[in-house]
Design brief:
2 domains, 23% strand, 16 helices, alpha/beta, GMP Synthetase, Chain A, domain 3, Rossmann fold, disordered N terminus, 4-stranded parallel sheet
Length: 545
């Protein structure tokens, strides 16, 4: 039976919005905490464990958050987090369980805001900076946050979304040092005396939004226990970071890949994280790794491929671990990077629904072409459509069970992801006789391009809003550079010509409607689309074409 998932005394959880919208217990994944390090106390706050207790480990004066302008120690971060938590609870009157939307890029300000929200017993709802008002509105409608903490440079789209979603009644900008009402000014007026919310391990820490194949966002629910258990799995047994490590990377903190790799896991190890003032380019990341002496890097295979010539040109003497995730790692990319740096890339597969990586391999355990083996604490198998394990060497669906699992917020798609207690991430794999897992493909219509997930129907909806488009279908086309690209097949309305000018107009239209990375890099015009007798679009025929 699945473990009980509830808020138990002496938890201060008050707002039961998320708990009341969890799937029924029979749809929950089975959670296993078999290893000694996974035996967590029934009452714990993950920020208390990772930040407040750093002093007990001798890390108080060690650097934690770095940028070009400032370096904050663990003690500095604790002070700033406590002041922000005071603003949230004293000025904004938020109570445990309230959702707080976070909007920002990878920055010290975003990291501090996230930690303060969770320490106060609130539920962090982090959103990517590229999202447009439409997408933000869908998240607000689902999570019902009343307060948002937003990077001052990203207010526009959120304010537009707020107009249609008045439940979000307060937006507090951060990264403004002298603006009255900003988070920085408000928190500077506090004394920093804040006691962490005494959360149950099973209280909610975050909602992680991910687009499904329908384009409708799903919110994966994760508890304080989930995040701490994830720290005791892949980081402990595979990554093996140390307090001397300096971590850099490109995945957004709004992705669980980025949240783990660029905040939570370094804190668990006593390491530090460097955040750039502007987003990385491939060459800029190589130069920044050299300048700051970074030792661990997280990014997607596409970015490693683009970084490789600059790494070979400039050299990366401090770098020791390179983590690749977010999309399938082509062996050609692994070898290209190894030739440029001498470093064997650490591959892994994880899922927003599982919080982080559950299959991986590092160093001498790497097998060419394989993602790796199951991470200690997890169990994985390759199964058929009935959930029966298939013989080794046979393609099937991946099923995973461990200390984390999928619980969607109020979403009928729960039963697609969890069956008989097992999690089905939606990937086709082969497992060999030695236990190595080899990725084959997605077993749904998700498009994974340069590490970003894009739902085809979401792009179709945007294209159909253009006056020239009568019908359209969107698929992922294999691409050597990005893994996949978004490709659209469009049927035009009479009077419109399918020329290069219209291709650009449609691309610009999607960029203005959705996050820019979702736009179709290829558009093909057709007289009609393949459909079933009932009118259902046959995407598999588009892929064959």
């Amino acid at each position: 039976m699945p473990e009980t998932f509830h808020s138990s005394a002496p938890s201060a959880q008050t707002d039961r919005f998320v708990h009341d919208r969890l799937p029924p217990p029979q749809q929950w994944p089975t959670l296993r905490h078999d290893l000694p390090e996974l035996q967590l106390p029934p009452q714990c706050n993950l920020v208390t464990e990772l930040l407040d207790k750093a002093a007990d480990k001798g890390w108080a004066d060690r650097p934690l958050l770095r940028s070009e302008r400032i370096t904050l120690s663990y003690a500095d971060v604790k002070d700033r987090v406590d002041r922000i938590a005071q603003v949230l609870t004293e000025d904004l009157n938020l109570i445990p369980g309230n959702r707080v939307l976070l909007r920002g890029g990878n920055s010290i300000g975003m990291a501090l805001a996230w930690l303060a929200v969770v320490k106060a017993g609130l539920v962090a709802v982090a959103t990517m900076p590229l999202l447009r008002a439409k997408e933000l509105g869908e998240i607000i409608a689902k999570a019902q946050p009343t307060v948002a903490l937003c990077d001052a440079t990203l207010l526009g789209e959120l304010q537009t979304a707020q107009q249609n979603h008045p439940v979000l009644h307060t937006i507090v900008p951060f990264n403004l040092m002298n603006e009255p009402g900003s988070l920085a000014v408000r928190s500077a007026q506090k004394d920093g005396r804040f006691t962490a919310c005494p959360t149950s391990a099973d209280d909610i820490a975050l909602l992680a939004f991910t687009s499904g194949t329908t384009g409708t966002p799903k919110a994966a629910v994760h508890t304080h226990r989930d995040v701490l258990a994830a720290c005791e799995a892949w980081p402990r047994h595979v990554l093996k970071a140390t307090p001397d490590d300096i971590v850099v990377g490109s995945p957004p903190l709004a992705f669980t890949f980025g949240l783990g790799g660029l905040l939570v896991f370094p804190m668990w190890a006593g390491a530090s994280i460097y955040f750039p003032d502007i987003p990385y380019t491939p060459e800029a990341m190589v130069l920044r790794i050299r300048d700051v002496g970074a030792t661990i890097c997280y990014t997607a295979p596409t970015f490693y491929r683009q970084m490789a010539p600059f790494a070979k040109q400039h050299g990366l003497p401090s770098l020791r671990i390179c983590v690749s995730a977010g999309e399938a790692l082509p062996d050609a990319t692994r070898q290209l990077w190894k030739d440029a740096t001498g470093i064997e890339m650490l591959d892994g597969i994880g899922a927003t629904e599982m919080f982080h990586i559950f299959i991986s391999a590092a160093g001498t355990d790497v097998r060419r072409g394989a993602v790796g083996k199951v991470v200690p604490g997890y169990t994985a198998k390759v199964v058929d459509d009935q959930g029966r394990e298939v013989p080794r060497g046979t393609v099937g669906k991946l099923a995973v069970i461990g200390p984390t699992g999928c619980k969607y917020l109020d979403d009928a798609r729960q039963t697609r992801y969890v069956r008989d207690g097992w999690n089905y991430p939606g990937d086709a794999f082969v497992q060999d006789t030695d236990g190595y897992f080899f990725y084959q493909a997605r077993d749904d219509d998700m498009i994974i391009t340069a590490g970003y997930n894009v739902g085809g129907p979401e792009v179709e909806d945007a294209l159909l809003q253009h006056p020239a488009v009568a019908e359209c279908g969107v698929i992922g086309r294999p691409d050597a550079e990005r893994g996949m690209i978004v490709k659209a097949f469009c049927v035009l309305k009479p009077g419109h010509a399918g020329d290069a000018a219209l291709v650009k107009a449609l691309q610009d239209h999607v960029k203005a409607t959705l996050a820019p990375y979702k736009y179709p890099r290829e558009i093909e015009f057709m007289a009609s689309l393949p459909r079933t007798e009932t009118g259902k679009l046959q995407r598999f025929k588009l892929r064959q074409a």
